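Example (one chain per record):
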Amino acid sequence: RRFYYANVGDFQNAYQILARTSELKDSTFTQETRKTIASLESNFQLEKKNIEIEVLKKDNQIKNMEIKRERMLTTVLLLGLIILSISLYLIISLKRKRDKLYKTLEQNMVELEKKDFELDQANKSKDKFFSIIAHDLKNPLGTLTTLTKMLKEEFPHKEKEDLYQLVDLSVIASDNLYKLLENLLTWARTQLGHLKPELTEIDLSSLVDEVLNTMFSQANQKGIVLGNLTEPGLIITSDQNSLKTIIRNLINNGVKYSDSGGKIEISAYKTDSEITIRVRDYGVGMDEDTRNRLFKIDEVSSRKGTQKESGTGLGLILCYELVKLLGGKIRVESEPDKGSVFILQLPV
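Predicted structure:
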């Protein structure tokens, strides 16, 4: 029809038909294009979703692998921590057991050394004990025996003054023998642990007077003056017999090593927690080596007195043991030719 209108010269209708035909073609093309585009877009979206799904799957796989790896790592670390903890526990336990064993062994060694020392001291004490019995006890006993025999044999022929002298010497000899036996028995009791302090309140000045009265005869033989400088009414709580034995032996030591005409002074003073007793003589004194050996049972050796008096060395050892038993301390200050001061520190 288009061509018809063109042939007859009706160009307007021909043009309209042409335009309409073009529109129809464009419409058809557009619809097909749209269908194609829609199909492509649909395929694209589908492919995109498939890709996204694959990507998600890959992500999930990666995440699962990471989770597995983290779990494995956590398990390994946990196992390692458990193994380390067990190892540390075993090491600490073994170290504690070892330390405990070493401590026990060390304590046993200390105890063994202590027992060995005590046994050694006991053996030395035993040796000293038998030495005194075998030798030192023999001298005063022999002296007393000789004097009594002389007294018996010469009684009818001696003047009264001479007899008094023999009697006086016999009294001194018997007194020395008695003191030696008393020291020996007291010392033996301290070594056996049988001597227990009986604490009572004691007037120290009165006690010193009692001791001096028993020592007067011995000191008078050498013209030695005994002085009690202790303040009256000074009270100490202690064992009376032990305290008497200590002071008596210290005075006896001072008499032995003092020259004729010398003096011995006993003084005391009190502090808050203790009483200090000083026994001072003005005799021959002693050097450092002698001072260091005074209170040691295995090293003690009795020196001759200023008038060749013999002794056992037991008196000062006994003083040391008794002072220790009373919870106190004893020391000496002395120099050659300057006398000696024995210092007792006893609890109030």
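Caption: The chain has a mean pLDDT of 80.
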